[in-house]
Amino acid sequence: MILRQSCVRHGRTALGISARTCSRSASSVSIRGEPASDETPRRRISSRTYSTSRTSDTIDHPTPKAQQADQLASESEKQVSALGAEVNTLSQTSRILDIDDLTGSKKVADIEIEKPTLARKTASTRAKTPRWPRDPGFVDAWKKERQNPHEVERFFAYRAINRARGTDSSANRYDPKKLLTQPPKPADLTLPMLLANQCHLGHATSLWNPSNSGYIYGVRDGIHIISLDVTYAYLKRAAKVIEEVARMGGVILFVGTRPGFRDIVVNAAKEAKGYHIFDRWVPGTLSNGQQILGKCAVQVVDLKDNKLEEYDEALSQGKHQVMRPDLVVCLNPMENKVLLHECGVFTIPTIGIIDTDANPTWVTYPIPANDDSLRSVALVAGTLGQAAKEGQRRRLLEAESGRETYSTQPAKHSLDLLNTLIAMDPQERSEQEESSGS
């Protein structure tokens, strides 16, 4: 009697012969090494402990279908063995081939095993061989034809299904560049997003400003941790403020003078249709703006942001009054104390990122966050830019319906006076200026 045992560890089947009798007749029972006289000798079973079993080994009189199944199984084993030998040969060959052979025009499958015995290429020949995909004449050793088209089709079909379900890992993967190209809107802001962009990291405890005690969550490894709940609430409030300023047609100025802030400031100002400074704040830009900004180009637009060319001649002479911003967003208040002082003198509201070493009373609307991380600053500036963009959209929508969100009479009155002064003779103009001064 043949026993069939299964190995739990290896998952294989072990065969053995037992002398225990079955319900069959005693004459049909065979003992190992002593076959019955009325039966032909059975095929000898391999002595290997974990040999693969066959159907003919377990059946006394196998049917043709069983024999055909055994033949197919043996052919499959031969194919697997041949494939394994080929893989081992290719892996051993690829270890000793240099990179020039792999990126050359010769296929890896055509490389013989005796390839390592060939002479090494000279420096001149190696220099002529295209080694990179951008080089002309480059031929990839692993062509797409070698890939299984069915597997490629299954991969893209599975990816399309996951993308439709919203579970595609490649679509949900975090990309820091999206903070510049696709900044989040205030409605999409979440606490995990603030945490992922390092908004909670403060400075060392030795640099702590006591005015920030209400914004600090705790201490970790000698560093203050900013409470993201407070950051979330204050950022939402600042976004609401900048949205209303943009809806009312106010002038918004973004300032960030640290290295690496250039793209962040420019993109945020572009979204908000505002202005930006990323190089250096010139002292006196607000207090002495007529001398510093008097010769800058200026244009007049209507409620729908259409340019009015009738005032170009008057504005080109540099005698117009310089306008001050209605809101200033400062991304690094520690390096722009002069800017904040000038804004305080002229009662210009400010929004600033306040770290644990800064004084929150310097700005009107503080945002407790990490001002040293580009990711944190990009998140805050991008959110404010998106909020201002929404305010501009609402303003243009109301202008299309005929409603004014702000009064244009003061600006129009000033421009009319400017045209009148320019049309006067120089003598009359000097007399008018003297009379107005007295």
Structural class by secondary-structure content: alpha/beta
Helix content: 40-55%
Name the poorly predicted regions.
21-39, 42-50, 98-119
The helix-strand sequence is EEHHHHHHHEEEHEHEHHEHEEHHH
How would you describe the shape?
elongated
Distance between the termini: 129 Å
Major sheet description: 5 strands, parallel
Strand order within the widest sheet? 7-6-8-9-10
Radius of gyration: 40 Å
Please provide the count of β strands: 10
Q: What is the count of helical runs?
A: 15
- What value does the average pLDDT take? 76
Our estimate of the beta-strand percent is: 5-15%
Give structural notes.
InterPro entries: Ribosomal_uS2, Ribosomal_uS2_bac/mit/plastid, Ribosomal_uS2_flav_dom_sf. Keywords: Ribonucleoprotein, Ribosomal protein. Residues 24-65 are annotated as: Disordered. There is one protein chain. The chain has helices at 55-58, 64-96, 99-102, 123-128, 149-165, 178-181, 191-196, 228-247, 262-272, 289-292, 312-315, 337-345, 374-400, 409-423, 426-437, and strands at residues 2-6, 13-17, 201-204, 216-220, 223-226, 252-255, 275-277, 327-330, 350-354, 365-368. By secondary structure, the protein is α/β, with parallel strands linked by helices. The chain has a domain at 178-401. The strands form three sheets. The chain has a five-stranded parallel sheet with strand order 7-6-8-9-10. A hairpin with a 6-residue loop joins strand 1 (2-6) and strand 2 (13-17).
